[in-house]
Amino acid sequence: SVTAIFADGSRETGDLLVASDGNTSTIRQKFEPEVQPQFPGYVAWRGIVDGGLVKGDAQKVVHDHIIFSFIDSGFMLTMEVPGAEGAAADDAHRFYFIWYRPTASDEVLRDMFTDASGSYHGVAIPPPLIRPAFIEQMKADAAAEFWETVAEPVIRAPQPLLQAISDMESNRLVFGRVAIIGDAAFIARPHVASGITKAALDAAALADNLAAQNELDRGLAAFETARLAFGREIVAHSRRLGYYIEHERIKDADAALKKFLDPIHVMDNYGAPHLLRAPDMQKSPT
């Protein structure tokens, strides 16, 4: 059995504890304190803006497409998302963007996540507390560096979000009667576009392996073998897709990684098609 002891002193005992408590998982840190998110030196700016606020031909160009925009130091994706229910015609669709940008140094990164009062918020600062100077500079850079059609949603976004990109991989997923899944187990960079899918596949694999085995311990062992292989490969793939952004920080990259300096190669491999299309997700990826 396993017993969970909560902050208020209460306890719950059962056959299995499933740790799905996210990238700062208390449970993972108890068993593997050395496993922590790693930061490759770039951030993501995100935003959503109502279609009626966007000028020019963005409505026509972005409709039914994902637009990749590459510049020397990073890239941005722009796409259409549904508007609010009952929105007027111009706002029936909104624009979403995510712009990956390298940071000059760890000191600059920390400064970006520090609010006007001097409080540092770690890897995720509440959007209203992002200092206006950083937002203004980001929008000015977008206007200067991108085609005006895809720069428009960035410039018009009323409240951008800021995220420090990170990744992480666990050495183990099972500790006695404790199983770790989702972002508590592996953090892949957003380039694989599969955070929710990855967590759902972990949960399905855990349920399927437990159901297929006569003993709980055997089911947990089978689950761990399958999902360790998957988790390591999806994190590795997310790093390959991020190489375009961080390549100046990486020395002696192998030839396979250097392919990802080609924007066409990035677009062809964006997401995790070779992993997520497999019919049997319990098998190790090839």
Keywords:
286 residues, alpha+beta, five-stranded antiparallel β-sheet, three-stranded mixed β-sheet, 37% helix, globular, disordered C terminus
Protein architecture, described:
This protein is of the alpha+beta class and 286 residues long. A hairpin with a 2-residue loop joins strand 10 (174-175) and strand 11 (178-180). It has helices at 26-31, 58-62, 106-112, 132-145, 148-156, 195-212, 216-246, 255-258, 263-269, 273-276; strands at residues 2-5, 11-14, 17-19, 42-50, 66-71, 74-82, 93-102, 161-164, 168-169, 174-175, 178-180, 186-187. It is built from ten helices and twelve strands. The longest helix is centred in the last third of the chain and has 31 residues, at 216-246. The chain is globular and about 60 Å long. A five-stranded antiparallel beta sheet has the order 5-6-7-4-8. The chain is 37% helix and 20% strand.
Task: Give a concise summary.
Helix content is 37%, strand content 20%.
Beta-strand portion reads: 15-25%
Residue-averaged pLDDT: 90
For the CA atoms, what is the radius of gyration?
Answer: 21 Å
Largest beta sheet: what is the strand line-up?
5-6-7-4-8
List the helices and strands and how they pair.
Layout: E1 2-5, E2 11-14, E3 17-19, H1 26-31, E4 42-50, H2 58-62, E5 66-71, E6 74-82, E7 93-102, H3 106-112, H4 132-145, H5 148-156, E8 161-164, E9 168-169, E10 174-175, E11 178-180, E12 186-187, H6 195-212, H7 216-246, H8 255-258, H9 263-269, H10 273-276
Parallel strand pairs: 3-11
Antiparallel strand pairs: 1-2, 4-7, 4-8, 5-6, 6-7, 9-12, 10-11
